[in-house]
């Protein structure tokens, strides 16, 4: 989580856009079973929330690129 917070600042300086939500999984062995299914109750809603934000950003950037092009 500490690295993610530092990466947000660093990637922002490179011009990258980050989503507002951070989906941290501190103990993967306690969050997912051996079959990959979620054990921890926060996994599914947390994953859905960050995927929805990523999807929104992807569509927004695509629509803006189609309307205005890529800066040179």
The N- to C-terminal Cα distance equals 35 Å
Total count of domains: 1
Helix-strand sequence: HHH
Q: DSSP helix count?
A: 3
Radius of gyration: 16 Å
Q: Output mean pLDDT.
A: 89
Strand content: under 5%
Query: Would you report the number of β strands?
Result: 0
What is the structural class? mainly alpha
Looking at the structure, what is the overall shape? elongated
Largest sheet: none
Unreliable segments (pLDDT under 50, ≥5 consecutive)?
Answer: none
Residues in helix, %: 55-70%
Structure description:
There is one protein chain. This protein has 72 residues and is an all-alpha fold. It has one domain (2-68). The protein contains three helices and no strands. The protein has helices at residues 2-13, 28-31, 43-68. The longest helix has 26 residues, at 43-68. The protein is elongated. It starts with a helix and ends with a helix.
How are the SSEs placed, and which strands pair?
Blueprint: H1 2-13, H2 28-31, H3 43-68
List keywords for this structure.
elongated, mainly alpha, 3 helices, 72 residues
Quick summary:
The chain has 72 residues and is mostly helical. It contains three helices and no strands.
